[in-house]
TrEMBL record, chains A, B:
Protein name: LacI family transcriptional regulator
Species, as recorded: Algibacter amylolyticus
GO MF annotation list: DNA-binding transcription factor activity; transcription cis-regulatory region binding
Gene3D superfamilies the record matches: 3.40.50.2300, lambda repressor-like DNA-binding domains
InterPro entries: HTH_LacI, LacI/GalR-like_sensor, Lambda_DNA-bd_dom_sf, Peripla_BP_I
SUPFAM superfamilies: lambda repressor-like DNA-binding domains, Periplasmic binding protein-like I
Record lineage: Bacteria, Pseudomonadati, Bacteroidota, Flavobacteriia, Flavobacteriales
A Pfam family matched in the record: LacI
Length: 340, 340
DNA sequence: CTGAAAGCGCTTACAG
DNA sequence: CTGAAAGCGCTTACAG
């Protein structure tokens, strides 16, 4: 950053004051068109670009959003970030990203950095270790709006963008029931996490509402819904006296691994076991048979987060304390549950 | 951002000057330990956090890196960003990201934004449309270092982090040859892009060096190496009088689609056709049979980019103009090429 | 060991 | 329609 042209330089060249240059470039109505043209021409000629740090400093607005995600390389989060960046870009905001690596300590450190960086607002998905959100409270005092998505705090009021995990799971399970399944299993995520708890509850509620029994031997608990855990769960199903005829998995990885384990054991999908996943990962379209899954709208979640956050930044109307937006999901029906 | 505590506030409280507060918090050697302690205590007590925008403005250093990627939601790029963020975080840099969406126009706009944002350095992978990099030249004049990765400019000197596509492809093809393949096909990427050109060349060179003929009917051209294009290519192979016995694909998507098309046609992988992909996408470990592929070190590419960039930012030594670092790849041998 | 002063490049209320 | 002036919150060369 050397010998940048400043407003002062332009002013000297044009025999005008820096105030006038600033206003001309900002298209201020009080400045004559003739002057605006002269200034713009000189600015282009000299390759002037405003120093937005100086402007941010002066205005106490940085037009940047801080985003804290567990990991950027998880597809769900990269889609969310993509949605955030897209919306932010269109509205002239910048996006600065941080990874908590699912570690509370790192998340806390990042909030300290964000506190000094003067971002105009923050979007975050909590780390898996975070049970207490007090490190986010400081932003309330500083007047920096927060929006959480996916893994959201329960211990304090904040704006949130979520999907209806309960309802989505209800619908997914209902789809299996309506397809004729009577013994439906569930591979469940970590029950310390609200979204996975809701998915289990939605599954149970659907069974109940169709007068099907909730058979605990058909519900498999996992820690992180990893591919390997999915393989282990599928093997457990195989060791049961009777196989389930339907399986709703709390994510796509476990659903894919179940498909593979079952097929290796000559079990026909969906004829013998119909399978539904959750999240619409890219692999769900590639695995054979293609996986029926819940589109969790990751990109839209990012867009919605950015939209809500920017509205909160720009609304001087201090009446709204927090806002919770629930996005619609969509059950994408593919071969893995298309029976007969 | 309201009623933030400033150095001046602390100074007033402690009957010291702002200069002393600044130096005390910056652990300046000239300040007595007693004063440092007093200042630190008061700062903690009042919840002081430095305004880093003011500091950036003053120092003309923002400690932030601008990153331009085609899309964040492409796994390769999200891994690279993850590597960048990780290294940057450890070195107290922030990472601001932009997506070009593979559009030259948007890439140009982003460079204009970055010019005003005063980032200390820029990391970028060129958009697919970019053939002319003159919109990056301004950063040379501004003294803002640039590092390109993966898709890098050929028309001007710049620091680059790349892998050796030629050699990696040579090794991958050689592996097929050594496994006993004699008729090896190649699904090639867009030949306007250097990396895909290099992959094709590496494949051809390996054949030649083992005295195998280069059979153009076994080389399929694609536009974007998409899954669907892979399916189409695989079908073309099936329509040939004789199938290849080995297939080196310029990415994993096309390799996966080839596996699926072949298997649907009762062709045994790897016994009848051995297949090798490129990039080590997550799906390569999941597809059956598991895909042999080239680990392109996306995360390390990000780390290396950030490392090189930060070194260029912090080295006042103006002797180095640009630096090109080639990373080692690794051939991961899995079932899809393990013959016999 | 500490302070007074200048200045980074903008923006804007005030004056004319 | 344009300008002079103040100030955002830091940092640091200079002085003592």
């Amino acid at each position: 950053m050397k010998n940048r042209i400043t407003l002062k330089d332009l002013a000297k060249d044009l025999n005008l004051s820096p105030s006038t240059i600033s206003r001309a470039l900002g298209n201020h109505p009080a400045i004559s068109d003739a002057t605006k043209k002269r200034v713009q021409k000189k600015a282009d000629e000299k390759g002037f670009t405003p120093n937005s740090i100086a402007s941010s400093f002066r205005m106490k607005k940085t037009r940047s959003l801080g985003v804290i995600v567990p990991r950027i390389d998880i597809h769900f989060h990269s889609l969310v970030i993509s949605g955030i960046e897209d919306f932010a870009y269109k509205n002239n905001y910048n996006v600065t990203i941080y990874q908590s690596k699912d570690a509370l300590k790192r998340e806390q450190e990042i909030t300290k950095i964000l506190q000094t960086r003067m971002v105009d607002g923050i979007i975050s998905c909590l780390s898996i270790e975070t049970t207490n959100c007090k490190h986010f409270k400081k932003f309330n005092k500083l007047g920096v709006p927060l929006v959480f998505y996916d893994r959201v705090p329960t211990d304090f009021d904040a704006s949130k963008i979520v999907i209806n995990d309960f309802e989505s799971s209800f619908t997914a399970t209902e789809h299996l029931i309506k397809s004729g399944c009577k013994r439906i299993g569930h591979i469940a995520g970590n029950q310390k996490t609200n979204i996975f708890k809701a998915r289990l509850e939605g599954y149970k509620a659907a069974l109940k509402s169709y007068d099907l029994p909730v058979d605990e031997t058909l519900i498999m608990q996992t820690n992180s819904l990893s591919y390997d855990e999915g393989v282990a769960c599928a093997k457990k199903y195989l060791s049961l006296p009777e196989l389930p005829d339907g399986l709703f998995c709390a994510n796509d990885y476990t659903a894919v691994s179940a498909i593979q384990v079952f097929r290796k054991n000559e079990i026909k999908i969906p004829q013998q076991v119909a399978i539904v996943g959750f999240s619409n990962y890219p692999i769900s379209r590639i695995i054979e048979p293609n996986l029926t899954t819940v589109n969790d709208r990751a990109f839209h979640m990012g867009e919605a987060s950015a939209k809500l956050l920017i509205r909160q930044i720009e609304d001087n109307n201090d009446i709204i304390d927090s806002e919770i937006i629930t996005l619609k999901t969509e059950l994408i029906i593919r071969e893995s549950s298309r029976i007969g």
